[in-house]
Amino acid sequence: SVPFIFNTDLKRNRFNRSRENNWHDNLEIQICTEGSATVLLDGKTFPFNKNDIVVVNSNVIHYTGTDSNLTYCCLIMSNEFCRQVDIDPSVLNFEPIIKSSALADMLTQLRSIYLNPNTTCRKAKLNKTVLKILIELAEHHTVHKATTASSTKKYETVKAAISYIRDHYSQKITLDEIAKAV
Hints:
Elements: E1 4-13, E2 27-41, E3 44-49, E4 53-56, E5 62-65, E6 69-77, H1 79-84, E7 97-98, H2 101-115, H3 122-140, H4 149-167, H5 175-181
Antiparallel strand pairs: 1-6, 2-3, 2-4, 2-5, 2-6, 4-7
């Protein structure tokens, strides 16, 4: 009943990690609470250490993996909610790695409210905290998007292939069919 998905205390190690890259339209924010990892965003690799915040912009192919141990929280916000408050993640581009105690504190506050179902006015406080996070991103962590035509075309092709597979997952499909579709 809230305009976001919030996964707290996700644990990854070399035996328990995501198997593939993924992408979606929604804005995603990750905060490392323990350990370290590597984050891949549209082919660029970034270190992800304790208290680092990763922003996965809209439609960015991404992957978070580690060969050691990692604990992190992952907030995925509804694009509809973002647009309703006049912060459109499909238009804005945020810094991929942020080191901000203010933003980290907001994410910690969100986690605390989220994990306590007895919080007075819980839903309102969750929405308020997510809104504060969005405002902080928009006011202090927006960057100009600099992409080259070749890298954009390459990732658009990958995204089109993934979309085709998602749309036809219940059917038997071949590589030739995917290639023809994209």
